[in-house]
Amino acid sequence: MSDASINASTIREDEASFGDYFALLKPRVMSLVVFTALVGLLAAPVPVHPVIGFCAILFIAIGGGASGALNMWWDADIDRVMKRTKGRPIPSGKVEPGEAMALGLALSAMSVTMLALATNIFAGAFLAFTIFFYVVVYTMWLKRSTPQNIVIGGAAGAFPPVIGWIAATGSMSVEPWLMFALTFMWTPPHFWALALFMRSDYDDAGVPMLTVTHGRPATRKHILFYTAMLALLAVGTAFSDIGGPVYLVVAMVLNALFLHGAWKISRRDEEASEADNFKVERGFFKLSLLYLFLHFGAILAEALLKPYGLGGWG
């Protein structure tokens, strides 16, 4: 084989595919954004035309993806060090940082503009603020400067149901902020559990996660505290306008399981085997994924049952 053929083959192998550019949008995170925004949209007390609703969720998803691309652009140096992220498109060399930045900026502008046109200016402006908060406040500032990065920065991931509600109503209300608070309070124990069994990644990258700055025992106590506060909020939400009997049952069961898991984590002995600790922490992390999905699923169920006189308390 000639040198030219070898070079051509290498170029083809290194070329970014559609899947690489799509990976920049953090599709797993985007799926959570889509689902919580959809619940916010459908839980609102205003009927939304299906086409408008579809457009709203599409543009919110694109805005979330744009945030992910800009996050990967800025964090490329960290991603190259961490085992969990070194296979991402930029660290693996498949996508240039400038391409990720350009894609993120373009999608940001498009999603904000189109959401404003499809629904209302308030929703578009709030999406713009959410992108700014995630990229500038969290990614560029908090993530590398304080162990409270996840606590404060978690607000960015909690905004989608509020945006969905605003897209439907054009106004604010208490209910979307209850959904915001649910995600906001869930974020720290969720990510701290991840940090417990992935601590070496944050150590190597120099990210001041709580496990790095305060140690594992302190992180375990923080997880228990936030889980207890989350349980009070989650169960209390059952008695709001977005709650009801279905939600209450789901919240009672899930929060009992979540509190039990947090208690087990808080009681872990640092001298115990790494495999035992890993199993408990990873199990809690997996439960946390199910926790948020089922809470929002219960809110959605209550909203869908209301037209038939079955949802809510009355």
TrEMBL record:
GO biological process, one term: heme O biosynthetic process
UniProt keyword Transmembrane, yes or no: yes
Enzyme class: transferase
Keyword Nucleus assigned: no
Subcellular location: Cell membrane
Residue ranges crossing the lipid bilayer per the database entry: 29-45, 51-74, 121-142, 149-171, 177-197, 223-240, 246-263, 284-305
Known pathway: Porphyrin-containing compound metabolism; heme O biosynthesis; heme O from protoheme: step 1/1
A Pfam short name: UbiA
Main location: membrane
The reaction(s) this protein catalyses: heme b + (2E,6E)-farnesyl diphosphate + H2O = Fe(II)-heme o + diphosphate
The enzyme's E.C. designation: 2.5.1.141
Topology with respect to the bilayer: Multi-pass membrane protein
Record GO terms (molecular function): protoheme IX farnesyltransferase activity
Signal peptide span: none
GO cellular component, one term: plasma membrane
Keyword set, alphabetical order: Cell membrane, Heme biosynthesis, Membrane, Transferase, Transmembrane, Transmembrane helix
Miscellaneous comment: Carbon 2 of the heme B porphyrin ring is defined according to the Fischer nomenclature.
The protein's assembly and partners: Interacts with CtaA.
Similarity section: Belongs to the UbiA prenyltransferase family. Protoheme IX farnesyltransferase subfamily.
Reported function: Converts heme B (protoheme IX) to heme O by substitution of the vinyl group on carbon 2 of heme B porphyrin ring with a hydroxyethyl farnesyl side group.
Protein name listed in UniProt: Protoheme IX farnesyltransferase
Lineage: Bacteria, Pseudomonadati, Pseudomonadota, Alphaproteobacteria, Rhodobacterales
